[in-house]
Design a protein that fits this description.
Elements lengths: L2 E10 L15 E11 L8 E10 L10 E5 L4 H16 L2
Antiparallel strand pairs: 1-2, 2-3, 3-4
Length: about 90
């Protein structure tokens, strides 16, 4: 099975949380790496997300230490971004 890796930057305007991570994450921009598998046997191109990795900003108390959060549910990042957008819309009213 073939796979594809894409990388993007996502920006949160507000603090947010993700399951499996104890701390609340600060607003800001985050590097995201998405792993997807091509679904074979179809007459059209289709992909399934298999892993989403969120690169956390370095902790100033532990310089040089990078932390990567691998999301258990690949759709969780989309849900967190949707909550952030909803909060932006509610605060702009």
């Amino acid at each position: 099975m073939k796979n594809r890796t894409t990388e993007k930057i996502v920006t949160f305007q507000y603090c947010f949380s993700l399951s499996g991570y104890k701390k609340t994450l600060p607003a800001g921009s985050y590097r995201v790496v998405i792993e997807e598998d091509f679904l074979e046997g179809l007459t059209f191109t289709a992909l399934r997300r298999t892993q989403v990795s969120l690169y956390l900003p370095p902790d100033p108390c532990q310089p040089g230490r990078a932390e990567v959060l691998t999301l258990q549910d690949p759709r969780e990042l989309d849900a967190a971004l949707a909550r952030d957008l909803l909060q932006q819309q509610q605060n702009s009213v």
